[in-house]
Design goal:
This protein is an alpha/beta fold and about 190 residues long. It has 6 helices and 9 strands, in the order ααβαβαββαβββββα. It has one domain: Rossmann fold (3-Layer(aba) Sandwich). Helix content is about 45%, strand content about 20%.
Length: about 190
């Protein structure tokens, strides 16, 4: 009898672990934007470029495990809001932010980055592909207030001229409303007398 109960516990535990792994991997893959964690150095560089002042609100679109949120709260004094579609990632981000001691400055919302209200953001952080950046661009143009900053890693916002580019870490900074242009117009502005 005891052996059957122990076997049942192991089976249930295995099923729960398998379900967690599937949710961790499957939900992001099904939404088309798999979880790829950014290195803390790149996160810091992006947040430094945005010149975050204490108390400003930073949104991380596709917050994953919450690392951007915690760095924004701990190192910049920001209030941080994570938008993440995966319930497993939301749970991990919530746990990590609580354990970091900065849980009161961090909010996690389980939602799509394409339907979330980001109008309260002073800074939007996005580590996305070019295709997802193109989908986000009109949303950000519509919702963000003048003076808000957008920092992206690895993907430019096509049609917007960056205010600043970190070529080493491939970080792009934009200010709202963005100037029309591209990386080419950004790089050529210093060449034109």
């Amino acid at each position: 009898m005891m052996r059957d109960s122990l076997s049942m516990v192991w089976i249930i535990t295995g099923v729960l672990i398998l379900a967690a792994i599937i949710l961790w991997i499957a939900v992001p893959l099904l939404t088309g934007l798999p979880w790829v964690p950014s290195h803390a150095k790149r996160i810091r560089r992006a947040l430094e470029m945005a010149e975050i002042a204490p108390g400003e609100v930073v949104y991380d679109l596709g917050a994953g495990d919450g690392r951007v949120l915690i760095i924004a709260a701990r190192e910049f004094g920001a209030r941080a809001v994570g938008i993440e579609i995966s319930p497993m990632h939301c749970l991990i981000a919530w746990l990590k932010s609580g354990l970091s001691g900065f849980g009161s400055q961090v909010t996690i919302r389980c939602a799509s980055i394409y339907t979330a209200d980001v109008s309260g953001a002073d800074v939007v952080f996005a580590y996305v592909t070019p295709e997802h950046a193109a989908r986000l661009r009109p949303i950000l143009e519509k919702q963000l207030k003048s003076g808000a900053r957008v920092v992206t890693i690895s993907a430019e916002m096509e049609g917007w001229q960056p205010d600043q580019i970190d070529k080493n870490d491939l970080v792009f900074l934009y200010r709202m409303p963005p100037a029309p242009g591209s990386i080419v117009s950004y790089l050529s502005k210093d060449l034109i007398p």
